[in-house]
Specification:
7 helices; 4-stranded mixed sheet; 3-stranded mixed sheet; CBS_CbpB; binds adenosine monophosphate; CBS-domain; alpha/beta; CBS_dom_sf; 148 residues; elongated; CBS domain; CBS domain protein; Diverse_CBS-Domain
Length: 148
C-alpha cells in the first residue's frame, strides 16, 4: 500500500517539474475567438492560458467558453468568433501558484483545475503545473516504496 507519511509535498518546488512557458500553448487578450479556437483545436487541449503582450498572466480560456459565446438566441452564430476577443469570454478568477510554491499548494489547486499557471513576482507566466505531473510524482513515490 502507498504510504505517504514520508512523502513531503512541501519540500518539492513546483518549478522543478513544471512545463516551461516556451512549451506552453497560449493565446493573447486581443486575439479573436477564432484564433483561440484554432489553437485549442490544433493542440487538443481543453483550455490554455491567456497572456498580455508582456507575458503577464490574465486568465484561462476553454473550448466551452468559446462555444457558449457562439450561442445566439435561436442558433449558433459563427460571426461571434470574429467579433469577440479572448478578453470578452476568458475567466480571470482562476487560482495560480507562485514560482516559490511547492507541490502542496499545487495539489490543492489541481483538485478543481486541470492545470495551474506558475507566476513570477511580476505576474509573468513562467510555466504550468499539470494534473498529469502531480500524478507522476505519486506514481514515482509508489514505485520507489515498492522497490525498498
Ligand atoms: P494533463 O494533466 O497533461 O492532461 O494537462 C492538463 C491540462 O493542462 C490540459 O488539458 C491543458 O489544458 C493544459 N496543458 C497541458 N500541457 C499544456 C501545454 N503544453 N500548453 C498549454 N496547455 C497545456
Amino acid at each position: 500500500m502507498l504510504d505517504l507519511t514520508n512523502f513531503d509535498l512541501s519540500s518539492i518546488p513546483v518549478k522543478r517539474d513544471m512545463i516551461e512557458a516556451e512549451k506552453v500553448a497560449h493565446v493573447q487578450l486581443q486575439n479573436p475567438l477564432e484564433h483561440a479556437l484554432l489553437v485549442l483545436t490544433k493542440t487538443g487541449y481543453n483550455a490554455v492560458p491567456v497572456l498580455d503582450l508582456n507575458g503577464r498572466f490574465c486568465g484561462i480560456i476553454s473550448k466551452s467558453d468559446i462555444v457558449e459565446a457562439m450561442f445566439g438566441i435561436e442558433q449558433i452564430e459563427v460571426d461571434k468568433l470574429y467579433e469577440n476577443t479572448v478578453e470578452d469570454v476568458m475567466h480571470s478568477d482562476v487560482p495560480t501558484v507562485s514560482e516559490h510554491d511547492t507541490l502542496e499548494k499545487a495539489l490543492h489547486v489541481l483538485i478543481d483545475h486541470s492545470f495551474a499557471c506558475v507566476l513570477n513576482q511580476d505576474d509573468e507566466m513562467i510555466g504550468i503545473y499539470t494534473r498529469r505531473e502531480i500524478l507522476k510524482q505519486f506514481r514515482n513515490e509508489f514505485y520507489e516504496q515498492q522497490s525498498k
